[in-house]
Design a protein that fits this description.
single chain; about 300 residues; mainly alpha; Farnesyl Diphosphate Synthase; two-stranded antiparallel ribbon; about 0% strand; globular; Isoprenoid_synthase_dom_sf; magnesium
């Protein structure tokens, strides 16, 4: 029998993205679940527009591969990954609103408030956020109840006032009073980094990792979360709207402070290299088993959109 050629990183990223998208499509179908009364057609269509419009699904990928590092894979892990993507997609829908970043394009398609209307976009985001916790808490996510509870808690902390939502609030404040370097790092660690850190920690939790290994994955997630934002800042400075599938140059136009803007492109690229080196070093105890996560760290640094 001929041996199968191992998938490249990009192929594996696409495979996981496809699996997450298929599950989201199933979760976002018309059938009311137990305890639900009905699923309004227009609201459901807006949720699907915001969640099923492509994308790399990097956060679910990190969760799936972090779990696989500890021997966990299958439907339960995929459901947690899909729940995380629901939170991420909710954040994008709300970030794009006129009251926030006021964007017309997301992944090359009209944003939800443009395709539908602002009120429907707000409700679609609210519903995706709520549904994320439904998915994890459901017994269909076949992890121990204590593990599901811990994952729900960690996701709430990553998404809420002390994480992503709080980071968005700081980002709005930064338009009026640009923070210094420490403030920028805090803002970005909350707005962008918190869900990336959660992805790695949740994978470790789903895999039953020891506290020491869990903390190592948390540190890995923090490093690549900072790297992701640095890469994003560089793309905002240098990439075209066509490449990104959304407007670029908006940070500078809005007067938002970024590390790339504060220190310059060369400094930012050196910092990015240092963060990826740090991330790779954190994975050393896991040997070859962590090669995919190492590739993921490098992917974060070299992404073009």
């Amino acid at each position: 029998m001929q041996e199968m050629t191992p998938l490249s990183f990009d192929e594996l990223l696409a495979v996981h993205a496809g699996a997450v998208e298929d599950l989201l499509r199933n979760l976002l179908d018309e059938r009311p679940r137990e305890g639900e009364i009905a699923r309004p057609e227009r609201l459901l269509a807006a949720m699907r527009h915001g969640a099923l419009n492509g994308g790399k699904r990097l956060r679910p990928f990190l969760l799936i591969e972090s779990a696989r590092l500890f021997g966990a894979q299958g439907e339960a892990v995929l459901r947690v990954a899909a729940a995380l993507e629901c939170v991420h997609c909710y954040s994008l829908i709300h970030d794009d609103l006129p009251a926030m970043d006021d964007d017309d394009l997301r992944r090359g398609q009209p944003t939800v408030h443009r395709a539908f209307d602002e009120a429907t976009a707000i409700l679609a985001g609210d519903s995706l956020l709520t549904y994320a916790f439904d998915i994890i808490a459901d017994e269909a996510t076949a992890l121990p109840a204590s593990t599901r509870l811990e994952i729900v808690l960690r996701l709430a902390r990553a998404a809420g006032i002390g994480g992503m939502a709080g980071g968005q609030a700081l980002d709005l404040e930064a338009e009026k009073a640009p923070p210094g370097e420490e403030g920028i790092v805090r803002l970005q660690a909350m707005k962008t980094g918190a869900l990336i850190r959660f992805a790695c920690e949740a994978g470790a939790l789903a895999g039953g990792a020891s506290p020491v290994h869990r903390e190592r994955l948390v540190a890995f997630g923090e490093a690549i979360g900072l790297a992701f934002q640095l890469a994003d800042d560089l793309l905002d400075l240098t990439a075209s709207s066509e490449t990104m599938g959304k407007a670029t140059g908006k940070d500078a136009a809005a007067g938002k402070a970024t590390l790339a803007g504060l220190h310059g492109e060369d400094w930012a690229r050196k910092q990015l290299e240092g963060l990826i080196t740090q991330a790779e070093e954190l994975l050393e105890p896991f040997g070859e088993k962590a090669d995919i996560l190492r590739e993921a760290a490098r992917f974060v640094a070299r992404r073009q959109h």
